[in-house]
Amino acid sequence: MLLTGGLKSLLPHVLRRIIRCNRHSISNTSGMAEGYKQANIVILHKSLADDFEKFCHANNGPLPLLYRSKPGDWKCPSLSSDSDIRTDCPQCRVYEHGAFTGSVKSLKEYSEQLKDMVTFYLGCSFSFEKAIQNAGIPVRNVEQECNVSMYKTAVPCYSISTFCCNLVVTMRPIPESKLEAAVLATSELKEAHGAPIHIGDPGLLGIQDLSKPDYGDPVHLHPGDIPVFWACGVTGVEAVINCRSPLAFTHSPGCMFITDLKNDSVTVGSSSEVPQVYCISQDPLHYSMVSAEATQKIKNLENLIGIDPGDRGIIHLHRPDELLKACLAISHARSVLITTGFPTHFSYEPPEENDGPPGALAIAAMLQALEKDVAIVTDQRAMDLNKKIIDDAVQLGILKRPVPLLSYQRENADSALRFLCENGNRRRPRFDHLIAIERAGMAADGNYYNARKVNIKNLVDPIDDLFLAAQTIPGVTTTGVGDGGNELGMGKVKEAVKKHIKNGDTIACDVEADFTIVAGVSNWGGYAIACALYILSTCEIHDRYLRKAVGFPQLLKKKTWLSALPSVTKEEKRQGHTRAKCMSSESRASCY
């Protein structure tokens, strides 16, 4: 990349003149005209222009529209004072019926055809490079004097007429300590693609090998760097290819049109606009994004459910931000498996307490509203009871439809893996996330105990196996919800259970979950998960990150999500319909 002789700091109109005269060989414009907006270019026949504009608006993350010309107009007065699109891109590509037929430095030979064509100027991530540098973040491709890396993904864009393609992204290595700064620096620069659409493992986007970009050059990561992906205007090139128009032109990826518009410094306003970054998985590495406002609401929920009505010392089990991280992971999941059931009343039939199932139903109802697949796994002996609970919940309108009810039995060493994955293949998991809420958890000696140290192993199927197997399956995360330390998933806080909970040395669950939600009553934890999922779904920053900045915001579904939230009225209807007798705090405490 030629940046010598001050090309890097020249004003846009001077750079355009140099490009127009073809005085220098410019392989890409990254790092040039610092602080000024650059643009991707798509030129199509006027008959396709309206549909392409709709396609841009439907996918405004990768295709932020800066300007649309009139047919045959080679200038863009709102972007530059003295430009000619035929000559002012360092290099353009020619496509005929979707096939790339060559690169040219000037489109003047196509002047006659261009009279019936419309030029679209689309925002470019090169525009935010100066903002990243100003935040103290290295731009590795500029350091390495090469083009940025661009990759085709497996993420489909929202289709309009003949325009359909998958999202293209740029990747920039960012030091882990600078991730949030990079997000803040770019989030409000929406005409330059805005905030990243993915942080972490490229495989989650369908990218197999970072060393082999589809466009641009490979950019090397330094130790401690995390791959960060932004939506890319080369998505427009893919749309042109798939639309197969008789003749079309685009910029050559990396060779942008440089405008006279400055990237004005943008200050983030309210907390609803301030993005925050959280790691939700190590294998594969995956970060999520949420607004500071939504984060604070979920923290408040976490504090509320942490009240200890039985004064059992659960405050010592609390781990901050576990509710937030668990719900971020659940939000990214497509299919969720829930388990519940604690047969603490071992001398009664049925022996289950009524803490757990209501919370599980609340989670399931919200997952259904969010259009995720959800199933419940429970003990074989409790299948009829749970089927009745689910049927009643559907009849009362708590659930939209019945939840598949499963049981698990250990038949051999591979049983758990085969239950969780198709044919036991770790690359094909049936579930992305497992949730245990008030589920008896296996202690270190292999037994299951209620709070009074009574061994109830004979009443409990080994569903813990599924959580242990999940630890070996990339991309599958787990959450445990409990209120005493003897519940499945509480192995993450077992040392605190042993130290601070009565009988903890014996009863502490030994099986860990990735996220541990501690509540005064486990049902509260289930209700909090449902509410937190609602908060995340109505968070614009998180919604954009989930849909990878393609398609339209999902906030129109807010009414459906709201109706799925747990409420006192729903709980009263459920209890009355099933004639369940709620235990008072005192009677519940006596069972422990």
TrEMBL record:
<comment type="similarity">
    <text>Belongs to the D-glutamate cyclase family.</text>
</comment>
<dbReference type="InterPro" id="IPR009906">
    <property type="entry name" value="D-Glu_cyclase"/>
</dbReference>
<dbReference type="GO" id="GO:0006536">
    <property type="term" value="P:glutamate metabolic process"/>
</dbReference>
<keyword id="KW-0456">Lyase</keyword>
<dbReference type="InterPro" id="IPR025504">
    <property type="entry name" value="GLUCM_C"/>
</dbReference>
<dbReference type="Pfam" id="PF07286">
    <property type="entry name" value="D-Glu_cyclase"/>
</dbReference>
<protein>
    <submittedName>
        <fullName>D-glutamate cyclase</fullName>
    </submittedName>
</protein>
<feature type="domain" description="D-glutamate cyclase-like C-terminal">
    <location>
        <begin position="301"/>
        <end position="573"/>
    </location>
</feature>
<dbReference type="GO" id="GO:0047820">
    <property type="term" value="F:D-glutamate cyclase activity"/>
</dbReference>
<dbReference type="InterPro" id="IPR038021">
    <property type="entry name" value="Putative_hydro-lyase"/>
</dbReference>
<dbReference type="Pfam" id="PF14336">
    <property type="entry name" value="GLUCM-like_C"/>
</dbReference>
